[in-house]
Amino acid sequence: MPSLLSAVSQAFSMIVSLDSYLLSVVGVSLRVSGMALVISVPLSALVAALLGLARFPGRNLLRTLVNTGMGVPSVIVGLVVLLLLSRSGPFGGLGLLWTPTAMVISQCVLITPLITGVMLSALVGVDRAISEAAHALGASRLQRVLTVIREARFGFLTAVIAGFGRAISEVGSVLLVGGNIVFPHGVSYTRTLTTAIVVETRKGQFETALALGIVLIVIVLSLNLLASRLQRRGSW
After folding, report:
1. Which of 76, 110, 113, 149 has its CA 20 to 30 A from that of 69?
2. Where are the extended beta strands (E) located within the chain?
3. CA 10: distance to chain centroid?
4. pTM for the full predicted model
5. Do 190 and 178 contact (CB within 8 A), yes or no?
């Protein structure tokens, strides 16, 4: 086992030299998590708007399901998706298991309740006087809804950041449905930052695991810094 100083030095060397294996793993992580976010955010925004701004039969049940989904362990999500996509499952004929698509599906199932819940909290937290003032000024129902959503935009941004953070830091579900596959010459197919960290640590490649961990932290930190800057400016 290398010393901590040596491992850190080699980790930064891998990052600076743009190691091909490192770039491959980072690319898979960003593509899978980014695609899951693109799919989940519009769906979450729609469900959050319905739950927060409308009244309909089954609303309380749907809200309960969202709250429950926020706390479901990722391995359970991965197991369910695995069973659905396995050869004997209802969608086995699609051949999606052990592919990035399966990982996207798993992450969508995992992060959609989280994003929805945070967005819903943001909507509920908007002062009712804002909607009433818009109504008094002659705004239509759609205009009032859009006004409330605009007031909750920073909460929506927080939801997006939280969803991406959970997706890209996920281990259990993507490992179950993706298989952690790497092609010859170190090209990742379904290996992500988190699953690679697990594998490299078990192999004793601590410098590689550390490099992957540093990149993961930098990605999440950069997104949070960007979100904080947007919130301080308040210009959107």
Report:
1. 149
2. 182-183, 187-188
3. 29
4. 0.88
5. yes
Which residue matches tokens 């003032």?
133
pLDDT, tens only, 135-145:
676 667 667 77
Q: Does the domain spanning 4-233 belong to CATH 3.40.525.10?
A: no
Of the chain, the end-to-end C-alpha distance in Å amounts to 50
34-37's contacts with Cβ under 8 Å and 24+ in sequence apart are: 34/164, 35/104, 36/104, 36/107, 36/108, 36/111, 36/167, 37/111, 37/160, 37/163, 37/164, 37/167
Pairwise CA distance, residues 20 & 227, whole Å: 30
Contact 107, 173 (CB under 8 A): yes
pLDDT digits (tens, 9 = 90+) for 13-26: 999 999 999 999 99
The half-sphere exposure of 139 on its side-chain side, counting CA atoms within 13 A, is 16
Domain boundaries of the chain, sorted by first residue: 4-233
